[in-house]
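Cont'd.
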Amino acid sequence: MKLYVWTLAPNPRRVLIFLGEKSIPMTVEDVGDGARLKPEFLARSVHRRVPLLELDDGSLLGEAAAICRYLEALYPNPPLMFGNTPKQAALIDMWERKSEGEGVFAVAEVFRNKLSAFEGRALGGYRTELPQIPALVDRGKRRFQEFVETLEQQLAEQLFVAGDSFSMADITALCAIDFAKRSRMPLPENCVNVARWHAQVSSRPSVAGCAG
Amino acid sequence: MKLYVWTLAPNPRRVLIFLGEKSIPMTVEDVGDGARLKPEFLARSVHRRVPLLELDDGSLLGEAAAICRYLEALYPNPPLMFGNTPKQAALIDMWERKSEGEGVFAVAEVFRNKLSAFEGRALGGYRTELPQIPALVDRGKRRFQEFVETLEQQLAEQLFVAGDSFSMADITALCAIDFAKRSRMPLPENCVNVARWHAQVSSRPSVAGCAG
């Protein structure tokens, strides 16, 4: 197997931390090129995004969570996607999706609609040109703010994002928050539970060894 | 268990078709109220969206795909999420996510940024007001167009969206396309493979019995 990443981006980082948690050996290639992905990478697949996993039979698998679910089937322990019961698995899936859609994607909305390097590529992966829309910078900030408030409420009641154990939902939420910090959107000071959780998960070797 | 839906919306329809495919008995409540969800429903959970599944222990589970994955663990046959191999499961997950993010969400972008009924609620589920952004109507149309082109390429090579068998990826792609049609974005005439597939999946009793 081979994993294609762009080490500056949050979605490949989700998979890299997941690999670290499970000590899965992997050949990794960075296909970033300045502020964009290399054209020869983009030409390889209809899924013009990273992370992309190339299986040994040549199949190409995209979407961070789909890649991690595939790897979890091959390397079940520790369970980060499937939990120990159907309910745990469903809550992990739900919170992983919320952390992606309301967290990572909200920060990307700010980032890609603001920086001139992303002109015409305000969403990743599209063949058609998507112009930047300045009003989305504010919308992305509001969405991220609300995501953090939701997370604060959730982490006031439990240790980790999807329950009592560390899971893929924590990895994705952490990558959203670190991506936001890099995009000059630090955690609000009143989010004490998110701050407690963030310090704790950031000290895990898989996270500390994979800078965001 | 009890499923909360808004029968006019595409995401609850994904779960309703899934239930039909598996003949899963379910108590269903429509919490739509004109062009919005009922306030008493919105107050119930941080996940202010439909579909929402209430488990017998009172837990609330959101996100259409997470709900279906939970139900698949309880009712494994026919497999619509998990496939028969880790690779099949991963491809279903990948294409289900693409059909949601690039299909359903692209159409919603058009719909919610255009209709006056959605003023201040240009994305569903947020507590904060999110104003409509007229430029997103055009962006959503471009995104949907590219999704259909990707699907055309995929369905030129295989029978169903994620491979040789009908799966959750087909359900989500179908709901995106029917939602687009209702939003005056019909299938382009040159998408012959998408049209062939759409006619075929639309004739399934689970789909025909659940108008989109």
